[in-house]
Amino acid sequence: MAPREIVKQNEISVSGVLNENDVETVDGGLKTQAKGIAKRRHLKLVWRNIILFAYLHFAAVYGLWLMFFSAKWATGIFAMVFYSMSGLGITAGAHRLWAHKAYKAKWPLRLILMIFNTIAFQDCAIHWSRDHRVHHKYSETDADPHNATRGFFFSHIGWLLCRKHPDVIAAGKKLDISDLENDPILAFQRKYYLILMPIFCFILPTVMPVYLWGETWGNAWFVATMFRYCFILNVTWCVNSAAHKWGDKPYDQNINPVENMGVAIFALGEGFHNYHHVFPWDYKTAELGNYRMNFTTAFIDFFAKIGWAYDLKTVSKDIIKKRAERTGDGSHLLWGYGDTDQNQDEKEMIPIINKKDD
Ligand code: ST9
Ligand code: ZN
Ligand code: ZN
């Protein structure tokens, strides 16, 4: 882990880039970057959330058991489809489109993403994106809602079980979120969230399996609703916890976010978190556009083909290379045999068994 310095009391220091306007060096960085650390703090617990999340996790474990030993196969498949739809509502919607403006979308796609996002119930997209912008610009300081220097548990779920640090709110108020507030689809979602969210996240996925293929109420509730919702929450939270902890730092070793392939697969391509914190405006949230590891990129590329997604932002190979060379930890492009940075001597030293002469 990179050495951390203590930020001064009551000072909210910028510790990351949020968009291209923040950039101060040719390779996309800041000239001086505050290092974050959690100051000692008395947490004000929110018991309502503690109780509801405890129920959700017990219900989800029961749901997992029912999925294998009681539910119809159609219910399990339905839960996976709902998982993917809600996942895209977070990754392609709240994250890449709304929080980062990494591409633009015509209204039909924005409407689809708003509905998918509501299935995910991670609070309305305006609030999600506001908190996420704060996370990038004040990353791993007390102003970061899920400051990972406060520990794995806090960055995973703990931050939702207590009141926010005042710095989070103060930092958020400095950010411009007028683009989000001026989007009529997002304003509609925020206004009617307490009606829309229960319908899309809880009622529909419970009622549909019962009426469409005769599932029991219990199986529908615990498998398609509780397990599916709890699982996607934990996958999302892993981006804040595991992907700020375990993995390589090919682009910037001075920050904690890492490249974590396990998270990338479950989070539909959102595990390349070292890259993402260095270049947050890239619509792929990764250097490589491998669709198997990054389903969200495939989704956006599909909609770009039919013209509903456009102005896709990315980063030139040259800038990525410059940045990886200046601040990376040397693990860049170490994917396997024959990588670009493997020289002839290294290649020849590797024993190859059952080699065919070409
Ligand atoms: C959930 C969210 O789980 C998960 C987000 C994860 C983010 C992940 C990012 C990773 C990268 C992307 C990868 C995606 C991968 C996805 C993979 C999928 C396959 N700026 O919040 P309140 C002000 S949600 C400015 O109540 P408290 C504002 O006036 C789960 N101002 O603070 C606000 O009023 P309003 C379901 C701000 O009282 C007021 O303060 N949801 C800011 O401290 C009060 O705000 C829940 O469980 C700001 N940043 O309470 C609910 N923030 O909002 C959980 C606040 O109306 N939340 N203000 O404008 C809560 O219960 C509460 O927020 C709390 C804090 C107890 C945590
Ligand atoms: Zn992060
Ligand atoms: Zn982000």
Automatic annotation (TrEMBL):
<dbReference type="InterPro" id="IPR015876">
    <property type="entry name" value="Acyl-CoA_DS"/>
</dbReference>
<keyword id="KW-0276">Fatty acid metabolism</keyword>
<dbReference type="GO" id="GO:0005506">
    <property type="term" value="F:iron ion binding"/>
</dbReference>
<keyword id="KW-0560">Oxidoreductase</keyword>
<feature type="transmembrane region" description="Helical">
    <location>
        <begin position="220"/>
        <end position="239"/>
    </location>
</feature>
<feature type="transmembrane region" description="Helical">
    <location>
        <begin position="192"/>
        <end position="214"/>
    </location>
</feature>
<dbReference type="InterPro" id="IPR005804">
    <property type="entry name" value="FA_desaturase_dom"/>
</dbReference>
<keyword id="KW-0443">Lipid metabolism</keyword>
<dbReference type="Pfam" id="PF00487">
    <property type="entry name" value="FA_desaturase"/>
</dbReference>
<keyword id="KW-1133">Transmembrane helix</keyword>
<keyword id="KW-0472">Membrane</keyword>
<protein>
    <recommendedName>
        <fullName>Fatty acid desaturase domain-containing protein</fullName>
    </recommendedName>
</protein>
<feature type="domain" description="Fatty acid desaturase">
    <location>
        <begin position="72"/>
        <end position="280"/>
    </location>
</feature>
<keyword id="KW-0444">Lipid biosynthesis</keyword>
<comment type="similarity">
    <text>Belongs to the fatty acid desaturase type 1 family.</text>
</comment>
<feature type="transmembrane region" description="Helical">
    <location>
        <begin position="73"/>
        <end position="94"/>
    </location>
</feature>
<keyword id="KW-0479">Metal-binding</keyword>
<dbReference type="InterPro" id="IPR001522">
    <property type="entry name" value="FADS-1_CS"/>
</dbReference>
<keyword id="KW-0275">Fatty acid biosynthesis</keyword>
<keyword id="KW-0408">Iron</keyword>
<dbReference type="GO" id="GO:0005789">
    <property type="term" value="C:endoplasmic reticulum membrane"/>
</dbReference>
<feature type="transmembrane region" description="Helical">
    <location>
        <begin position="45"/>
        <end position="67"/>
    </location>
</feature>
<dbReference type="GO" id="GO:0004768">
    <property type="term" value="F:stearoyl-CoA 9-desaturase activity"/>
</dbReference>
<dbReference type="GO" id="GO:0006636">
    <property type="term" value="P:unsaturated fatty acid biosynthetic process"/>
</dbReference>
<keyword id="KW-0812">Transmembrane</keyword>
